[in-house]
Design brief:
Number of strands of chain B: 7
Structural class of chain A: mainly alpha
Largest sheet of chain B: 4 strands, antiparallel
Order of helices and strands of chain B: HEEEEEHEE
Distance between the termini of chain B: 55 Å
Oligomer: heterodimer
Largest interface: A-B, 25 and 16 residues
Helix content of chain A: over 70%
Radius of gyration of chain B: 20 Å
Number of helices of chain A: 7
Order of helices and strands of chain A: HHHHHHH
Strand content of chain B: 35-45%
Amino acid sequence: MTARLQTTREDLHIAALAALAIGFHVLEASLPSPLPGVKPGFSNIITVIVLCQIGLGAAAWVALLRVLVGSLILGTFLGPAFVLSLAGALAALLALAAGTFLGRSIPIIRPGPVGLSLLAAAAHISAQLFTAWGLFIPHPGLVRLLPVFLLVAVITGLVNGLISQRALEYLRKDPL
Amino acid sequence: MTRGDWLILVLMMALVGTSTGVLWGDDGGAPARVQVRVSGELVQTLPLNRDRRLRVDGLLGESELEIRDGRVRFVDSPCSNQQCIIRGWVHRSGDMVACLPNRVSVSIVGEQRWFDAVNF
């Protein structure tokens, strides 16, 4: 007897976007980095696009699938890199949820893709830093790197946010 | 970019600034102390973070020192050239002021050393 999985259009949409995010995730892992943990974070572009197009639930699916499958491909599943990646993704999702909620309650300062991307980048990188500090490298000097990482988050968050914004404009004209 | 985007960007830049100030500021480490020497011999060690004035007996007479706001200076000294007073406030560990004619010197010691040596 074979079980058949009912897939909706949205499931396929999420799977396609998650595959794209996984692609970025794996591609980025091969890039050299000046400082461990500093990455362009291109897969966050996909998360932000999904959040703006579909919603928070779909964004969470894409982000978590990306972390899981990305780690399986790279062979880091359940290792330190996976823990850091998961912590970053969860924090970024929380930040995105907070940003969305903020936009709903105070519409004047409703963040667009750029603001959301900035929030996610800052949450992602700080959560990774504090997880690394708490679990792997409990050295007091590590926290002093926070400003450096936050500056990186401002830059990557801004760039990725602007890319998301452009991509969303294209998608509005020519939807998937 | 929306108004919210700009707001978030500005707040994050501010956070980078403040966290740099807090985590990389001058006052990291243990509180610094002030060592007072007369003719090279240590006569007093005082915390730099407690304001006070004190008089120290030197070769020529009394020198007056003031510790305030984490800094120290010579207020008065019986020397002829008054170089010690002209030097003004010092606050970094490793910093030093001396009144050579009166043989009184003041140096700041702390966990962080900003200078290996100071020379004039």
